[in-house]
Amino acid sequence: MQLWSNIGASRATTANPKSGGATVALGYVATLYLAWIGAWLLLSLLSKQVGWPGTSDARVLYWTLMKVMLWIIPATYVLRYCGIRLREAFRGNGIRSILLWGVGAGVLIGAEVIIRHWVGQQPYTLTPGWPLVSTVLISPVVEEYVFRGAVLGALAQEYRFGWANLISSVLFLGAHLPGWYFAGTLVENLTQPIGGALSIFILGLIFGYVVFRSRSITAGIVAHALNNLFSVL
Question: Angle 47-175-156 (CA atoms, 0-180°, nearest 5)?
């Protein structure tokens, strides 16, 4: 199926789509895993040799540059290879659908946090700064663009949505493993039922469904951003 096939005229969101898009996407993800491990090793080397990045803001800058080079640029190639037009993929069914599915899913995901703070009269705590911007804005944009845009979009051209969403969610989970390993939390995140690998996988399924129903990557970004915002409250 075409994830964006029902928008406008036939194949309105694709331009000369090629076969084998799913294979290209899977190859890209495998390469991304290796490159992401390399980015963590480079970070360790830079920290030891030159003492950079030594601050949280500098680390945000480092990871943002890595995400642009290793995630965004190659994912754009995958999207173009598959003939997916970015404007239509972001716009989808329109602003109402984006708000309905993006905000709706984000609020539902964050309902537990809202209720817990309300019942326990706990204050909301946010620390302004670039780390917050990275968590709430940069990460959702990059991850949704890659995994719900390029990967899910490519897989959905050759598989039923359910299978495409399942595979892309597993791959989305896999992208978190290098960070957990180098942070020393891999075993913890793989074994704890809530807040670890299982939660990431389920969130991947939810974000994929949001994109499917809204036909918009933007809706996935909104839901993802709200989830991350609630997670740091």
Answer: 150
**Rounded CA separation 37/35 (Å):** 5
Q: Which residue has the tokens 């898009």?
A: 21
Helix (H, G, I), strand (E, B) or coil at 84: strand
Q: pLDDT (tens digit, 9 = 90+) per residue, 164-212? A: 999 999 999 999 999 999 999 999 999 987 889 999 999 999 999 999 9
What is the maximum span of the chain, computed from C-alpha positions, in angstroms?
56
3-state DSSP helix/strand/coil % of the chain, to nearest 5: 75, 0, 25
Q: What is the CA radius of gyration of the chain?
A: 18
Residues in contact with 19: Cβ distance below 8 Å, sequence separation at least 6, in sequence order: none
2-52 confidence digits (pLDDT tens)? 676 543 333 334 455 567 999 999 999 999 999 999 999 999 999 999 999
Least Cα distance to 226 among 92, 101, 94, 110 occurs for 110
pTM: 0.91
